[in-house]
Amino acid sequence: MKIDWFTVIAQIINFLVLMWLLKRFLYKPILSSIDERETNIKNQLLDAESQKKEAAQAKDEFNYKNETFNKEKDELMQKAAAEAKTEGDKLKENARNEANELKDRLEKAFTEDQATKNNNMAKRLKGEVLDIARKTLTDLSSVSLEGQTVEVFLKRINELKANEKTKFSEALKGGKPILVQSAFTLSANQQGSIQKTVSGLLKTENTYEFKTRPELINGIEILTNGYKLSWSVTDYLKSFEADEKVDIETKE
């Protein structure tokens, strides 16, 4: 068989041209597309891995923040509970103190009220006792209650103990006048009797000032330079009250 070399050569050329064309216009773009797609897939896989790492990191950070929040929440709850307890205890203590203060004020007010009532009753009883004593002395003798008071006071001056006389004498060295106060107005004779008794006792001459002081309850007192000598029904009442108090405490 005779070979047609022209046809063979033409076929070879056609094949080479076809191969070139395929490589130029088909194979290269396909390979480029495949490389590009492979690169995109790799990039997507890298992005997915990166996102996975970021997600894991975000999850760890969330868990850490959640644990921190829970811890801080527990601490805040404990702190709030402690502060609430402290404030509650403080309020209770304030309420207890206010209640005690109110109780003390009420007790003090009650005591003062009782003292006022007792004082008023004592004053009324003193007045009634004095009226009875004055009437009794007037009925039984010609000596008035005031006159009898002066006599008792003069007797007390004369019966002063040595140490009292010394105190009285020391008080007179200042040169101040002797103040004589009485619950009633002293007559000239009564004033003279007091001056004479004091001068005779202390062997001194002094100036005297006489004043009336009703609250002494039928009593007389001598004051000079800080020294005081007195006698009154009040003294007996105070002594009686002290004796009564001691007796009550003993019984209790």
From TrEMBL:
<dbReference type="InterPro" id="IPR017707">
    <property type="entry name" value="Alt_ATP_synth_F0_bsu"/>
</dbReference>
<dbReference type="GO" id="GO:0045259">
    <property type="term" value="C:proton-transporting ATP synthase complex"/>
</dbReference>
<protein>
    <recommendedName>
        <fullName>ATP synthase subunit b</fullName>
    </recommendedName>
</protein>
<dbReference type="GO" id="GO:0012505">
    <property type="term" value="C:endomembrane system"/>
</dbReference>
<keyword id="KW-0066">ATP synthesis</keyword>
<dbReference type="GO" id="GO:0005886">
    <property type="term" value="C:plasma membrane"/>
</dbReference>
<keyword id="KW-0175">Coiled coil</keyword>
<keyword id="KW-0375">Hydrogen ion transport</keyword>
<comment type="function">
    <text>F(1)F(0) ATP synthase produces ATP from ADP in the presence of a proton or sodium gradient. F-type ATPases consist of two structural domains, F(1) containing the extramembraneous catalytic core and F(0) containing the membrane proton channel, linked together by a central stalk and a peripheral stalk. During catalysis, ATP synthesis in the catalytic domain of F(1) is coupled via a rotary mechanism of the central stalk subunits to proton translocation.</text>
</comment>
<feature type="coiled-coil region">
    <location>
        <begin position="41"/>
        <end position="112"/>
    </location>
</feature>
<comment type="function">
    <text>Component of the F(0) channel, it forms part of the peripheral stalk, linking F(1) to F(0). The b'-subunit is a diverged and duplicated form of b found in plants and photosynthetic bacteria.</text>
</comment>
<dbReference type="InterPro" id="IPR050059">
    <property type="entry name" value="ATP_synthase_B_chain"/>
</dbReference>
<keyword id="KW-0138">CF(0)</keyword>
<dbReference type="GO" id="GO:0046961">
    <property type="term" value="F:proton-transporting ATPase activity, rotational mechanism"/>
</dbReference>
<keyword id="KW-0812">Transmembrane</keyword>
<feature type="transmembrane region" description="Helical">
    <location>
        <begin position="6"/>
        <end position="22"/>
    </location>
</feature>
<keyword id="KW-1003">Cell membrane</keyword>
<dbReference type="Pfam" id="PF00430">
    <property type="entry name" value="ATP-synt_B"/>
</dbReference>
<dbReference type="GO" id="GO:0046933">
    <property type="term" value="F:proton-transporting ATP synthase activity, rotational mechanism"/>
</dbReference>
<keyword id="KW-0997">Cell inner membrane</keyword>
<comment type="subunit">
    <text>F-type ATPases have 2 components, F(1) - the catalytic core - and F(0) - the membrane proton channel. F(1) has five subunits: alpha(3), beta(3), gamma(1), delta(1), epsilon(1). F(0) has three main subunits: a(1), b(2) and c(10-14). The alpha and beta chains form an alternating ring which encloses part of the gamma chain. F(1) is attached to F(0) by a central stalk formed by the gamma and epsilon chains, while a peripheral stalk is formed by the delta and b chains.</text>
</comment>
<dbReference type="InterPro" id="IPR002146">
    <property type="entry name" value="ATP_synth_b/b'su_bac/chlpt"/>
</dbReference>
<keyword id="KW-1133">Transmembrane helix</keyword>
<keyword id="KW-0406">Ion transport</keyword>
<keyword id="KW-0813">Transport</keyword>
<comment type="similarity">
    <text>Belongs to the ATPase B chain family.</text>
</comment>
<keyword id="KW-0472">Membrane</keyword>
